[in-house]
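in:
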């Protein structure tokens, strides 16, 4: 009998020394052709097609069910947003299991733990020179106002607030002072300026339903052209 392992290589054990095989090459494809014929015959039966449809439908249904279940990350609250940008009018606690329609809705995790943000940007002073302002603060949203915070500033609300609101307040204060006052001034001159910016940020956070740790807010004025040692 021919060896099927060698027959797969178009040879058999008996004919291997002669580098030729008594098996016709086309016979190697007979098992595949017969298998395809059996599959085609199986598909012609109506009951088999119904069973195949039930299997595909059931697997698809349970896969969508698994994809629709979202869990809110610890230390966050969850929002459900659809593809049109509309939010579901509910706020979900951390660890809660949420149902979202697959491919149409998504779960957004908004961080509740205070997040520390660093903001660096250059502004024009009263005498037309550039000064670099470095701001370090800690922000946290108010839970019941999380949907409004997301609408205004997005998921990264800290970065969005600093770029959209804090930047305007800093610019208004910086353009009232000269470069020497901000960079070369003494603590008695610089501290009130930094305190004014800090108070403006505190008022802006109160208006936009954010909490800011005022005692942890640090503001520094630097010369952007100075060499870093």
């Amino acid at each position: 009998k021919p060896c099927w392992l060698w027959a797969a290589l178009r040879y058999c054990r008996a004919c291997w020394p002669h580098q030729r095989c008594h098996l016709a090459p086309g016979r190697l494809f007979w098992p595949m052709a017969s298998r395809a014929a059996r599959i085609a015959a199986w598909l012609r039966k109506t009951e088999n097609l119904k069973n195949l449809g039930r299997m595909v439908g059931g697997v698809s249904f349970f896969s969508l069910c698994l994809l629709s279940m979202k869990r809110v990350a610890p230390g966050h609250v969850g929002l459900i947003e659809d593809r049109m940008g509309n939010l579901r009018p509910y706020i979900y606690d951390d660890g809660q299991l949420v149902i979202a329609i697959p491919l149409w809705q998504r779960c957004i995790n908004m961080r509740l733990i205070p997040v520390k943000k660093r903001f660096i940007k250059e502004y024009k002073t009263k005498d037309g020179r550039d000064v670099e302002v470095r701001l370090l603060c800690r922000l946290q949203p108010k839970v019941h106002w999380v949907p409004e915070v997301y609408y205004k500033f997005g998921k990264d609300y800290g970065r969005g607030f600093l770029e959209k609101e804090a930047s305007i307040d800093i610019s208004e204060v910086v353009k009232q002072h000269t470069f020497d006052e901000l960079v070369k001034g003494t603590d008695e001159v610089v501290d009130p300026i930094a305190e004014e910016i800090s108070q403006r940020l505190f008022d802006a956070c109160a208006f936009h339903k954010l909490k800011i740790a005022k005692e942890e807010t640090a503001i520094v004025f630097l010369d952007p052209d100075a060499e870093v040692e």
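note: The mean pLDDT is 83.
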